[in-house]
Amino acid sequence: MSQVTRVALVTGASGGIGRAVAERLAAAGLAVGVHYAGNAGAAQEVVEAIERDGGRAVAVRGDVADEGAMSEAFDTVEKEFDGVDVVVHTAGVMILGPVAEFDLDALDRMHRTNIRGTFVVAQQAARRVRTGGAIITFSTSITRLATPGYAAYAASKGAVDAMTLVLARELRGRDITVNAVAPGPTATPLFLDGKDEATVQRLAAQAPLERLGTPADIAETVAFLAGPGRWVNGQVLFANGGIA
């Protein structure tokens, strides 16, 4: 009897950390659903990169906060690969500003994606992930750093922490782990955009390892939780080089 291929669905996988996660899991032998919100071309590039390396992947689209769209995305992955074992929810948005001046419409938009979107994806994952699987959400080290200007974003990720830890306990008896990864400053195009070299160097110097994280660093953490890290459950794992 041939071994059943493990299957992952990675949200926000068309670029940045999400792409690195999708490609790392594919390298570990998982078939991957490459989720994207709007950039179909970028998602297809990820699929083709995985396939060139001998892996299997399919692109799926949907607004993470739309339960119908995400149900269809899960359906597509299940039909293509016969199930889902790992769900990694990297999709999110970050809008910055001080509390006193923060635009409340922007707050609602960000919280729709970061809180409702995480809940929708976690709900689908809780219903569908097979025994022995893993659900991995994305938090942030900002919840510890408490950097001015990040209150609204940190609040949205604090909600992610809470729902992740509760879900781990709700899935008792299913042999499914549920954890959150909390990156620190990571050298993605989104993070680097608009920052001068002095700012980047200052941020890089904060960690004892004296560099920014890379998408590959974060992807390795996810691969551990998705594979051998079965005794890590109900945790927020800070992947930040010791910055906090």
| CATH C-level class | Alpha Beta
Q: Strands of the largest sheet, in order across it?
A: 3-2-1-4-5-6-7
| Mean pLDDT over the full residue set | 95
Q: What ranges have pLDDT less than 50 throughout 5 or more consecutive residues?
A: none
**Rg over CA atoms:** 17 Å
Order of helical and strand elements:
EHEHEHEHEHHEHHHE
Which class do the helix and strand fractions yield?
alpha/beta
- Work out the count of structural domains: 1
Please indicate the percent range of residues in DSSP E strands (runs of 2 or more).
5-15%
Number of helices: 9
Quaternary? single chain
Helical residue percent band: 40-55%
How many DSSP E strands? 7
CATH fold field value: Rossmann fold
Structural description of this entry:
The chain has helices at 16-27, 40-52, 67-81, 104-128, 142-145, 151-170, 189-192, 197-206, 215-226, and strands spanning 7-11, 31-36, 57-61, 86-89, 134-138, 177-183, 236-239. It has 244 residues and is α/β, with parallel strands linked by helices. The protein has one domain (7-186, 215-238): NAD(P)-binding Rossmann-like Domain (Rossmann fold, 3-Layer(aba) Sandwich). It has a 7-stranded parallel sheet with strand order 3-2-1-4-5-6-7, sandwiched between helices. α1 (16-27) packs parallel to α2, α1 crosses α9 and α3 packs parallel to α4. The longest helix has 25 residues, at 104-128. The protein is globular. It starts with 6 loop residues before the first strand and ends in a 5-residue tail after the last strand. The model has no long low-confidence stretch (mean pLDDT 95).
